[in-house]
Amino acid sequence: MALLVPLLLGLLIGLFNAFFVVKVKLPDLLATLAVMYIVNGIQLTYTKGYSIYNNMPLESGGTAPGKFIPSFLFIGQGEIFSIPFSALLMILTVILAHLFLQYTRYGRMFYLVGGNIEAAKLSGIPVNRYRTYAYMLSGLFAAIAGILLASRIGTGQVSAGAPLLMDGVAAAFIGFSVFGAGKPNVIGTFFGSILIGILLNGLTMLNVPYFAQDIIKGSILIGALALSYWQKKQ
Fold first, then answer.
1. How many domains does the chain have?
2. Core-most of 56, 86, 89, 218, by most CB within 10 Å?
3. What is the pLDDT, as a whole number, of residue 142?
4. Which residues pair with 57 in a beta bridge?
């Protein structure tokens, strides 16, 4: 249940985003940002702003009976042949997503819709359906990331993933502009995330304060955006 419920909720939130963007025709950035705040507010209201952890005290007295079982914690903390299970899961996901998007008819349709909606419509592709699928898949992968994060830190925290938002955006744009030659692609995003991870680990080892690391991440994002814009001008 601890795995199925978040995955289903991720799909539902993706469908919710698709409704506002595809049907209501709101700007995608504004619609998804608004839904993010709504979902965050619901979570904070339900948890009353508390983190969820083993033996947490209840307002009614006593402690919560639920526990983070070892099999759940293994997802984010376990190892197979000295390799973190989360890293193996990431590599498997990257491979499957790359094969699907690059070598299947349906995957190429996602690229076509994302690249040029009007051309995709003229080609007879059901654009709105594929945009809806894309938002639902995005919500599903976000739910998987949330499960991994909760398993890794061993607690349930509503805003635990907030500091990773800029990292994800920077990795995507680096993959798009640097490793993807101006085209969205899974492998490029994978290498972009590795680059961001190595950079942040290096800054941590150099004792750079965590609040100063946002300066570096913001600068990288600006550089990736500038390179992407320059490539489009060529």
1. 2
2. 86
3. 93
4. 63
Q: How far apart are CA 227 and CA 234, in angstroms?
A: 11
Of 157, 182, 211, the last residue of a domain is 157
Quick one: 168 and 142 in the same domain? no
Determine contact, residues 173/162, Cβ cutoff 8 Å.
Answer: no
What residue type is assigned to position 197 of the chain?
A: G
User: Can you tell me which residue has the tokens 């700007």?
Assistant: 27
pLDDT attached to residue 1: 85
CA geometry: angle 222, 41, 130, nearest 5 deg: 60
Domain assignment of residue 1, given as a range: 1-157
User: Do the Cβ atoms of 187 and 93 come closer than 8 Å?
Assistant: no
> What is the tens place of the pLDDT at every residue in 51-104?
888 888 887 788 888 888 999 999 999 999 899 999 999 999 999 999 999 899
Length of the chain: 234
Query: What b/e readout covers 143-155, taking b as 16+ CB neighbours within 10 angstroms?
Result: bbebbbbbbebee
pLDDT in tens, 124-175: 999 999 999 999 999 999 999 999 999 999 888 888 888 888 888 888 888 8
Rounded Cα distance, 96 and 101, in Å = 9
Kindly report the average pLDDT of the chain as a whole number: 88
Sequence-ordered list of residues with C-beta below 8 angstroms from that of 207, at least 6 positions apart, any chain:
none
